[in-house]
Amino acid sequence: MPKKNLFILPQKHHFMTMFLFITITAFSQDLEPRVYANVAKNLNVIAVGYVFMDGNVLTDPSLPIKDFTIQSHNVAANYIRTFGLYNKLARIQVSLPYSFMDGSLTNTNGNVLTGSRTGFADMKVRFGINLLGSPALDKSEFRNFEQKTILGVSLVTSIPTGKYYDDKQVNIGTNRWGFKPEIGVSKRFAHVYAEAYGGIWFYTNNNDYLNGKKLEQKPTYSLQAHASYYFKNNMWIGFNTNWFFGGKTVIDGVSDDSQIDNWRVGGTFSTPVAKGQSVKFQYHVGAYTNNGLNYYALSVAYQYSFF
In this structure, are residues 247 and 217 in contact, taking their beta carbons and an 8 Å threshold? Predict the structure, then answer.
């Protein structure tokens, strides 16, 4: 079968719809335990992580495509700072990823289309505050505090810093803003930490989709749950799951069959390696999908915490 470079030659079909979900999936369909965890104020956390994704990422069954597979290598730098706000524990988190992606697909004519992309993806900024159960305590006060139930809220903003070509269908960046208000509840038991979050992603329009077309996307709803077991040496292991649904796309006023219903499951393992330092491993895979996004992801991250 002849091969063409899909990532360079513009196509008539809405292939960008698929890769738009890839970038969102990689950095917003993630499973993030301990987002509302109780910690001391004035804590700084620097983390560097690597994520590998592999699988079929077809999101629109109406497209004339038989199969779509991508391998994505992503590195990200993260910074977290906690502080007091009206005597409540608040935090700000900034994440900037860089991606190396290779993909291929087969269209209905039997042509194999291949290509690659490299560059920065969209930056993500999270601002959150724990409204109940988590006062802003300094390091000495925090040692004697016993956590019960925490209720927190946050706003995640996706900033269009990613590499984007307005005449190409496959891009790392999304060329639009995204906002996710979220509410979370967490509770610490003897050795178990349980969490549940719910949020909604809202998106601005991409007015430069395929040489001036307007790409709209309906809100995407997300639910997330985690259960982690803690050992005496601060090592912990967790079970993670999330559910994303909605997100139908509309191109120049015409909607397509791109709504997603995606359930993922995974596990996390974190272990300390030195004072203030830890390494975290995570694996997650699609448990159910109605519309593509059937891939697996494996990540490792190094974290350094200091006051």
Answer: yes
